[in-house]
Amino acid sequence: MKTEQLWVQVLHAKYKCFDPISVSISSRGCSRLWHGLNLVWNRVNQGIVWNLGNGDSIDFWDDPWLVDIGLLIEFVSDCVAANIIPCSVASMVGIDGEWKWNLFDDLLLAHVLLWIVAVKLPLRSTFVDHPR
Question: What highest taxon heads this organism's lineage (predicted)?
Answer without folding.
Answer: Eukaryota
